[in-house]
Amino acid sequence: MNVFPYAIGLLTAVLKDKYEVEILDANINNLSIEQIFKKVSEYKPDVFGISCRAFTHADSYDKTISIAKKAYPKTITIAGGAHATVTPDLMMKNEDLDFIVMGLGI
């Protein structure tokens, strides 16, 4: 069951008045790695954030972060969520990940 990431929705609501925000939910839209690459390379985001909610998808998070960086090398990559909060050292082994937001990010 795919559920829209609540925290991403909150961030969008806060940021949309001052920044252009695009949500790319690969799970809900059933996007392949190639489709993610294409969308990121077309959009060229200054910041690419990913919500890492489940430990069972660690490989997918790493691949998605790396694909985003390859699609637009200037993008700043940020990971948040339960997986990033509990295993920040493991996540930061990915050289394409720039920052982690832990806990609620406050």
What does this structure look like?
This protein has 5 helices and 3 strands. By secondary structure, it is of the alpha/beta class. The chain has a 3-stranded parallel sheet. Helix 3 (58-71) links the parallel strand 1 (47-51) and strand 2 (76-80). Helix 2 (33-43) packs parallel to helix 3 (58-71). It is globular, with a radius of gyration of 13 Å.
Secondary-structure content class = alpha/beta
- Low-confidence segments, given as residue ranges, are none
- Number of domains in the coordinates? 1
Order of helices and strands: HHEHEHHE
Quaternary status of these chains? Answer: single chain
Gross morphology = globular
Estimated helix fraction: 40-55%
Strand arrangement in the largest pleated sheet: 1-2-3
Q: What can be said about the biggest beta sheet? A: 3 strands, parallel
Number of helices: 5
Radius of gyration: 13 Å
Distance between the termini: 29 Å
Beta-strand residue fraction: 5-15%
Whole-number average pLDDT?
87
Q: How many β-strand stretches?
A: 3
Report a brief summary of the structure.
This protein is 42% helix and 11% strand. It is built from five helices and three strands; from the N terminus they run H-H-E-H-E-H-H-E. It has helices spanning 6-15, 33-43, 58-71, 82-86, 88-91, and strands at residues 47-51, 76-80, 99-100.
How would the blueprint of this fold be written?
Elements: H1 6-15, H2 33-43, E1 47-51, H3 58-71, E2 76-80, H4 82-86, H5 88-91, E3 99-100
Parallel strand pairs: 1-2, 2-3
Features:
single chain; 106 residues; 3 strands; three-stranded parallel sheet; alpha/beta
